[in-house]
Amino acid sequence: MPTEPPAPPAARTPRESESVLGESMMPDQLNNNGTVFGGAILALVDKVGGVVARRHARKPVVTVSIDRVEFREPVFAGEYVVAAGRMASAGRTSMDIVVTVEAEDLMTGVKRRTNRCWLTFVALGTDGRPSPVPALTLETDEDRRLHDIAARRRARMLDDEREEWS
Questions:
Q1: Is residue 6 part of a domain?
Q2: In the chain, is it the N or the C terminus that has fewer CB atoms within a 10 Å radius of its CB?
Q3: Side-chain half-sphere CA neighbours of 26 within 13 A
Q4: In terms of Cα–Cα distance, which of 56, 127, 146, 135 is closest to 92?
């Protein structure tokens, strides 16, 4: 007797999975220019993106891509860096997440938005293969705006992929 496929997971809102991670930047994270390595910022971005994806999927996830990385301003030792991630769209097994990064000078209280990145994660089932994720319920104008950006981003990525692998 064939088994029924599992019911799709209940839809979730971006608000339910948004996450924030922060870290003080230390001298060992500096490059030769005296600013924080881009890789240190990307590690924080990937971590918060993974938290957002796991919260949404409630499953293990893997990073598929980090793109549209924008380094607008340098980050310096001693600054407190906060990465805030939120869901932008959900496909069958994939999730698009946008992460913004803000650096704060703890001595002056001045905060600056330094980076923004887009990430794609895929949820994994117990067999280690891609697994369905909940749909994304859009509640606010900002949810819809980010969802539209994610849809355009996805279309460009698919076009690029077809072109590069032809």
A1: no
A2: N
A3: 3
A4: 135
pTM: 0.89
User: Cβ(65)–Cβ(119) under 8 Å?
Assistant: yes
d(CA 49, CA 41): 12
Q: Is residue 97, in this structure, part of any structural domain at all?
A: yes
Based on C-alpha coordinates, what's the Rg of the chain?
18
pLDDT (tens digit per residue) in 110-135: 999 999 999 999 999 999 999 999 99
Report CA 77 to chain centroid distance, whole Å.
24
Residue 65 backbone phi and psi in degrees, to 5: -155, 150
- Does some domain include residue 7? no
Token pair of 96 as six digits:
């698009």
CATH of the domain at 123: 3.10.129.10
**Count of the separate structural domains present in the chain:** 1
Q: Which domain holds residue 118?
A: 14-164
> Which H or E run includes 114?
strand 111-123
Whether 124 is covered by a domain: the verdict is yes
DSSP classification of residue 140: S
pLDDT at 160: 79
